[in-house]
Design a protein that fits this description.
By secondary structure, the chain is mainly alpha-helical. It has one domain. The protein has 5 helices and no strands. The chain is globular. About 15% of the residues are buried.
Length: about 120
């Protein structure tokens, strides 16, 4: 029997880039979905900005401390009264609205730049 060679690939993507890549991918996925409810956002723009900032900060914290990222993410979402499903809905909602999406991310990135040591 031949030996099985497992190959793993490590991508040099960390920090806020993974969220940006996810949202860009979702924007393409949901760009043509007109059947979805477009009335009210599941999460306000201001809350999305704060969530993106906080989620990036806990990502960095987990990277340096080795803490489990899932529990850190859940605690951030919980602090804003949001669960994973509602956050995913909000990401989908804003991904279909490129101007709002860009505004939210610009504000989050500005805030992260201000918070740098």
């Amino acid at each position: 029997m031949a030996a099985r060679n497992d190959i793993s690939i490590t991508l040099p993507v960390s920090g806020w880039w993974w969220i940006a890549l996810l949202l860009v991918g979702l924007s393409f996925l949901f760009a043509g979905c007109s059947f979805l409810n477009d009335d009210e956002p599941p999460v306000s723009q201001e809350t999305m900005v704060q969530l993106i900032v906080e989620l990036n900060l806990v990502e960095a914290r987990a990277t340096y401390t080795g803490e489990p990222i899932d529990s850190l993410r859940d605690s951030v979402l919980s602090a804003y009264g949001v669960n994973r499903e509602l956050y995913a809905e909000a990401v989908e909602y804003y991904a279909r609205r490129s101007r709002e999406f860009t505004n939210i991310y610009d504000r989050a990135l500005d805030s992260l730049s201000i918070n740098r040591p």
